[in-house]
Amino acid sequence: MNDASPLSPSEAFDLLLAGNRRFVAGAPRHPNQDAARRAETAPAQRPFAVLFGCSDSRLAAEIIFDRGLGDLFVVRTAGHVAGPEVLGSIEYPVSVLDTPLVVVLGHDSCGAVAAARAAVADGAAAPGYVSDVIQRVTPSVLAARTAGLTADDEIIAEHVRHTVDLLLERSRLLADRVSGGRAAVVGLSYRLADGSARLVTARGLPAGAAAPDA
After folding, report:
1. Do the Cβ atoms of 53 and 80 come closer than 8 Å?
2. Burial letters for 15-28: b for 16+ Cβ neighbours within 10 Å, e otherwise?
3. What pTM was computed for the model?
4. Nearest Cα to 108, choosing from 192, 205, 212?
5. pLDDT tens digits for 130-151?
6. Angle (deg, nearest 10), helices 130-146 and 152-170
7. Which UniProt keywords apply (predicted)?
8. What pLDDT digit, counting tens, does each position of 157-192 carry?
């Protein structure tokens, strides 16, 4: 990647998925992880993607997308729930660093989604602030139930779509960047067993690049 040439949203998306394919194939290149890159990025950063993902310990962004220093601006919360601080953290690289791509990354066997499903099913309560996380995931679980979705991967995908919609509804800055063709917001679902990231939904990408995987 040439830092002198800004990437389009589509180019950034292709670059991200290329790294995931290397990771899945067991052939990572570990780019931008040496002393030269450390020195290059010390004065300033120019990440090509914002990665807003679940805090799950198995979703280490730079590993599963085979990237390095200065490539990804990573924001993570349990169940990728978004409050004001998260929205501001996502808006910062888009508005200040001109990052062209925002990725919402969900995954199978998500504990936050499982807890929200249990809360909806039988009123199971969670201790402390974990209950706040569950409350923010619950609308996705209810929407999935209304749509007749019952499989884990279907509910995870619904939660990813809900988060993408929420970002664009609550952030005028993101919505304006997407409508102006300067950014894209995409949702991916990660499979823990094989390490693949599947496209669930996309806003701001050309039709061919935005077709969800089967």
Report:
1. yes
2. bbbebbebbbeeeb
3. 0.93
4. 192
5. 999 999 999 999 999 999 999 9
6. 110
7. Lyase, Zinc
8. 999 999 999 999 999 999 999 999 999 999 999 999
Residue percentage of the chain with pLDDT more than 90: 90
Residue type, 131: S
66: CB partners within 8 A, 6+ apart: 19, 20, 22, 23, 28, 29, 30, 31
CB 209 within 8 A of CB 10: yes
Q: Rounded to a whole number, what is the largest CA-CA distance in the chain?
A: 55
DSSP, residue by residue, 99-124: --EEEEEEETT-HHHHHHHHHHHH--
Q: What is the DSSP code (8-state) at residue 19?
A: H
Q: Answer yes or no: are the C-beta atoms of 200 and 157 closer than 8 Å.
A: yes
**Count of Cβ atoms closer than 10 Å to residue 83 Cβ:** 12
For the domain spanning 9-200, the CATH number is: 3.40.1050.10
How far, in Å, CA of 52 to CA of 32, rounded?
21
Instruction: Round the average pLDDT of the chain to a whole number and report it.
Output: 94
Compute CA distances 109 → 71, 152, 153, 192, whole Å: 27, 7, 9, 8
